[in-house]
């Protein structure tokens, strides 16, 4: 039986020498990986509690300097020990998975299987108006109108739950890319397709075995995931504290991540990017190198149990090699990141501006410099919901005073979003994870920017506009700001002020109720857009139809960037 041990040698032999981007199924394949980035790093545990109760603090302890050898950055900490082999003969704890995964203090709540937590839920709750068959009638916004309307462990998701509201697709690396977030090569913004699109004959022997196991367990995915966490917490109870109290949706996330990683195991370049990001992102959870073998052991234990009909030593060896590769990439990325950035930032709320009954603009001051790029997002944890992280885009380009702003909409059953909108006040301390996302402006070109911001999705669009302004460029930027009603245009004043200041900027509000159409349809009435790069930010349905609309009018996929990729996956085709 093979032993699971990650080594530097193993890493180099598998991943040495990055290849140039391959065309082989690149659009679909790369896209899936980007989606999975957020799937794996975006646990979503929600409850019906709405974030208005429960949760003591507990995490707000002074930042500790890493003990020598205790963090991934040390030589000792970086190299995971061999784990004991597991398989069909492993001891199977009979602990009910749900009970084990949900600790006594877990808040009884609803579970959703959607990708993102709060804001995505609101999307489900709102019925979209029928698309008008009549010619589009966008509502151009003038100043007058504005005045009237203004109002981390297993490579496979061994991490506490985190909700993602944004995940970016294609975006060229910015020339000014800050060092923490590696630029992603452009990826066409195509709808998610079957991940295992590569012909079977192209798959490596390990990939074939890994996929065979995944196929076998697919019908019992929930059981596998539950059993995995049962194993993990029974055998390694010390790891329980790394996870949030409620774990239901986290379990869904895990298997999804597993499937994705397994399917892409041969796509080395994308896999490495993906896993490096994942490894860095897991630092904020307190994940350490020595946790990885424990997770691998339980992962393979769960797989071997539920894929027993096809499981054999050869398959186990393939999984061990795969997991070893994956974990070593994550460990190395975390170790490298540790040398240059904290695992998280504390940030004090300095202003809290309730723009509508359920939308707040929250501005925070990080405890130390926070480098990021306009268009990126971060993860946020509140003191009221420890270890539950949600993603929010930066609503401004980097500022000279170092402050960061977020637009947060409280949605039903959104713990973090409700806490941020209804509970947070100046002086409160939240935590921030590292910046992420590639929906950034390519300053090496002078293409125009066609920006669609729906609801609070306007936040990163505003940041992009500010970014263009700060670069002193005179490239046209056309913003379409969509909202259901004029009351929902909570940031229109800001956008109009920007428009007044910058002659190259045009802002149009598309109000569903007035235009009798949705945001994506409105852009068809304008253009031509063939000299533009497109940026979309908003609910998943808007992203989907927006991408379709942009393609229809001739914008190639590699010039369409968007967030909310995860929502696309969660929402299904
Ligand atoms: N807060 C943030 O930093 C960010 C939030 N987001 C996402 O933006 C969304 C904002 O939610 P809300 O403000 O409630 O927006 P919303 O649901 O009120 O919709 C805003 C706009 O999107 C359009 N839209 C919605 N569903 C559509 C569909 N299926 N097809 C075509 N158009 C559609 C609407 O017509 C409207 O113009 C959330 O999903 C959130 O996760 C995205 C990026 C950043």
Describe this structure in words.
- The protein has helices at 8-15, 26-40, 75-78, 97-101, 118-125, 143-149, 205-217, 221-235, 248-263, 268-281, 291-306, 313-338, 415-423, 458-470, 492-501, 512-515, 519-522, 540-552, 565-571, and strands at residues 139-140, 162-163, 345-356, 359-366, 377-381, 389-393, 404-409, 429-432, 448-454, 477-483, 505-511, 532-537, 560-562.
- With 573 residues, the protein is an alpha/beta fold.
- It folds into three domains: 1-9 and 20-46 and 74-96 and 198-341, Globins (Globin-like, Orthogonal Bundle); 345-432, Translation factors (Elongation Factor Tu (Ef-tu), domain 3, Beta Barrel); 439-568, Rossmann fold (3-Layer(aba) Sandwich), CATH 3.40.50.
- The strands form two sheets. The chain has a seven-stranded mixed sheet with strand order 2-6-5-8-3-4-7.
- Helix 14 (458-470) links the parallel strand 9 (448-454) and strand 10.
- The two termini are 41 Å apart.
- Residues 1-200 and 564-573 have low confidence and may be disordered.
- Bound molecules: 1,4-dihydronicotinamide adenine dinucleotide.
